[in-house]
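As a point of orientation, let us examine one representative protein, giving the amino acid sequence and backbone structure tokens.
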Amino acid sequence: MLTVILGAGKGLGRHLATTLAYRCETLVLSGRSLPGLEETASMVHECCPTTTTIVKAVDLTLPSSLEVYIRQLGDLRMPLRAFITTAAGFYKGAFKDQSAESVHELVASNYVGVVALVSGLIRLLDVARPLDIINVTSLSAATNLDPGRSSALHIASKAALQVFDAVVGRELSTEGIRVTSLAPGTFARSGRSGISEQTLARCVEFLLDLPPDAWIESLAIRPLTL
């Protein structure tokens, strides 16, 4: 069966790939940058040489790229067990200074492209039961906590994905498809305190290990202040 990680070329997506590899028959590493994906594939092979890794580039901002990508996954002729997206778009500076192109790219990366992929995957691929679709959103989008740590459009687009997950998840739950928003707070990076990638990976494993008759709609995670 297939486990697909979108955004696997770096960061959380890469960490998930190396963490989940041992439990995957075939791991599809996806994202925009082929060099980053190939580096992740090498890391997966080092830690789990028995896992088959497949690298597939896709650009969430281009409908033509999404169509090719979905067709390529279908050509693998394997049931889809899990689709995990960690892809996220950001911009620097104020919203009022953004061009139409940068706004379109961010919304497509964080929301429109993900929704289009989910639609294509469940329509055109053979899927396992349960099928887990896990979309990483953000704590700022899921709650009123931590609102000042990210750009306005990042929060808004991730909030849209959060709502999509909840609404479509209730529709698809009757078909054995579980759609979950995983909403972390600020990541711990470069000496900054926050949620670690290891913690997020453990949360993903927890979601994948749920029994078939259970579903967690949304999981918001914030650092514990001691």
Observations:
- The chain has a mean pLDDT of 91.
